[in-house]
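Worked example 2:
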Amino acid sequence: MIQNETRLFKFPKFSELIIHEDENLIVINKPPFVASLDEREGGEINILRLAKKYHADAQVCHRLDKETSGILLIAKNPETYRSISIAFEKRRVNKIYHAIISGTHTFNDLVVDLPILNLGNKNVSIDRANGKPAETIFNSLKYYKNYTLVACKPITGRMHQIRIHLATQHAAIVGDSMYRGKPVYLSQIKKRGYTLSKDEEEQPIMKRFALHAKHVEFELNDEQMVFEAPYPKDFATLLKLLDKFDS
């Protein structure tokens, strides 16, 4: 589905993604359905290639899952890349993601501290014996009848960390089929007045999992950097419809 989505997805110009730029750094709001780096199969559009066309020495400092939208840091020179990489390594980068999850969950500084084992081929599992330490802090932001908007603060940076940690709390991200998250359909939340023509198949409101890198904070060259990325259209639309029909 995601491959088809990428083809259907009209990609904006790289310059339109930029939320901050200075002599050392480019900060973008990454759209969904676009890989951060070159994937092994190659050929497909990705942020690194677009960034290098924009600025020849560009290096992507970290990665977001292909379906995840939000803040991505891109260094314009090797010194900045090294500085930000060290900040990530030493856990000096404060990142907040927003996720929409199934069910009503009251998380007040809930710490999920469960080791994650990378099984290869983009698969991970919780493995207390062999996994690498992984810690995420969760806070509920907004409650609906059947869903919750949650702030997720990863302390470590393991693959799929937020997604699998939420799944362990029986709070899978909507649309995240890998972790049993179910998509949201308008017919589910709009009980009255929803009709579909006979041959039409209903599409989910969001055609991906609802995870967005919202906020990042770190120090660069003795300056405190703070960035926020607005929700993309699909995430904002889902919240708007939940406000209207599920609150």
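Residues 1-8 have pLDDT under 50 and may be disordered. Residues 150 and 192 are 28 Å apart (CA to CA).
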